[in-house]
Amino acid sequence: MLNTYLTLGGIIILLIAVYAFKEYFLAQEEEYDDFQTYKKKEFLLNIPERKFFENIQQIIPDNYVVFPQIVLGSIVNVNNSVRSFWTYQNKINRKTIDFVIFEKPYLKPVLAIEYDGKTHDSPKRQRRDYFVNNTLKSAGIKIIHIRHSDNINFEIIKENLNNI
Fold first, then answer.
1. What is the rounded end-to-end Cα distance, in angstroms, of the chain?
2. CA torsion angle 51 55 58 61 (round to 10)
């Protein structure tokens, strides 16, 4: 009988501890949920990117479609046998590709395009580009870099699609 009361008492103490723990962390979370700090972006793409996007849409064949600002983790998977799965997953979830061309109808990624402006000249951005380039290469997705300029040769994109 005493064992039953001790067990019941232990369960009640455990439930109280779980409830208090939960309430403490929910209260902590609410302190940081200041939704007024967020606002809608006016545009997904800046003007040069938008013009580039419009031109790509005109030159790609009908069996392809292009999307801007694709998260790397949307087109590349982490090998399931990797021990530190979430470490690698977080690396690819925090990087976006300027444009990705997909093959219809199943939206198979076939060509990634980085539209390189001045920011790609910084050492930090070059390290990021090195990571993205090698990750895509390892996954079997071709990537090309197009330098921002007024005279972009869109034939390079067509040629890369034809060679897939």
1. 76
2. -130
Q: pLDDT tens track of the chain, all 164 residues?
A: 656 655 666 677 766 766 666 666 665 555 566 788 889 999 999 998 999 999 999 999 999 999 999 999 999 999 877 778 888 999 999 999 999 999 999 999 999 999 988 777 888 989 999 999 999 999 999 999 998 887 788 888 888 888 87
Q: Which helix (H) or strand (E) holds 133?
A: helix 123-139
Q: Is the pTM of this model over 0.70?
A: yes
What whole-number distance in Å separates Cα of residue 69 and Cα of residue 96? 6
The encoded tokens of residue 18 equal 């779980």
Q: With H, G, I as helix, E, B as strand and everything else as coil, classify residue 98.
A: strand
Q: How far apart are CA 139 and CA 76, in angstroms?
A: 7
When computed from its CA atoms, the radius of gyration of the chain, rounded to whole angstroms, is: 24
8 A C-beta contact, residue 66 and residue 100: yes
Looking up tokens 């006016």 gives: 42
CATH number of 47-162: 3.90.1570
Return phi, psi of residue 104, to 5°.
Answer: -80, 160
Q: How far apart are CA 127 and CA 34, in angstroms?
A: 33
